[in-house]
Amino acid sequence: MLHLVTGGSGSGKSAFAEDLIWRLHSENDGQASGPLLYIATMMPYGEETEKKIRRHRLMRREKGFETIECYTGIHALAGEGGPVYEAAIRGARPCILLECMSNLTANEMYSPDGAGGRTAEEVVRGIELLHTMCRNLVVVSNDVFREGEPSCEMQIYRETLARINARIARMADSVTEVVCGIPAEIKGNTYGKGTGVHMILVTGGACQGKTVYAERTYGVKSWIDGGSCAFDEIYACTAIRHFELLVRRMTEAGACTSDLAGELAARNPDVVITVDEIGCGLVPVDAFERAYREQAGRICTELAQIAERVDRVVCGIGMTIKGGER
Q: Which positions carry the signal peptide feature in this UniProt record (predicted)?
């Protein structure tokens, strides 16, 4: 089966995808248990990417993944002599996690040994070949489509990635968008949603009406603003808006945010929080902006796991992505 998992930076899509392929690998369905393969497409080009690679390897350590570095030409993995091909002809079709399509697309477009103008065709061909040779294939891709007009070159990249995502989605048995760690099924059904505790988390893009929605839906009367409140105010308020700005200010101040979600849940379990989605769009050039965006995404992922209910607001309309009727 083929599964596409997408989401913004720091959304929790990697953890979700790893749990999904691990679970699928554990369900043999009477078939020989082939290898559990992780196809890594991120080129290590500095300390920042090395750190990210180490973090992802740590996440996979206990799950039995065999990692294959492949930056271009994924079709070769399923060709004669390739590891996927060799496993398949032995009768032990593997389960594969490929991460991440956004990196693979950039590699093919811009690397000297990449496909260049034929990137979309070559990448999709590679996915089709892998799919035929394996038992389950989970492909992770990035949502880079929710910000202002990029440069001409970046627009070409976005359009290429969009074509690839769309073609994989048409082939896929399931498509899942991960928002703040919560899987929202777009096509098919892959994974159960988690359970929460007390708080309410309302997320969505900027200027989408999250504050008004929370006031109307949950009866919020007073707010503190993450862009200006004292850090300890969050533990004694009824509602916080612009939580992402709180994370930014704490990061700038060097304050510890590693257990912010857990501490907030313990000390203010009934709080209502609104937060802008800042993980979607092209990866920022500035190192601080990248680090802040990922940290905010990870904290919101933890909050979403804890929360009783998570809503997403688009154009003033709320959609519940975790929790039932209030």
A: none
What is the percentage of the chain residues whose pLDDT exceeds 70?
A: 92
Residue 310 shares a structural domain with residue 215: yes
Distance, CA of 111 to CA of 119 (rounded, Å): 11
Residues 263, 223 contacting (CB under 8 angstroms)? no
Binning the chain into helix, strand and coil, the percentages to the nearest 5 are: 45, 20, 35
**Same domain as 165, residue 231:** no
The count of other CB atoms within 10 Å of the CB of residue 198 is 13
Q: Are 121 and 167 in contact (CB under 8 A)?
A: no
Q: Which CATH number does the domain housing residue 264 bear?
A: 3.40.50.300
CA angle (236, 240, 243) in 5-degree steps = 125
304, 223: one domain: yes
Residue 326, token pair as written in the block: 């209030």
Where is 223: in which H helix or E strand?
none
CA angle 181, 184, 186 (to 5 degrees): 145
Q: What token pair was written down for 69?
A: 């570095």
pTM of the complete model beyond 0.70: no
Q: Phi and psi dihedrals of 81, rounded to 5? A: 90, -15
Provide the domain count of the chain. Answer: 2
Report the candidate in 2, 32, 30, 22 with the shortest Cα–Cα distance to residue 64: 22
60, pLDDT greater than 80: no
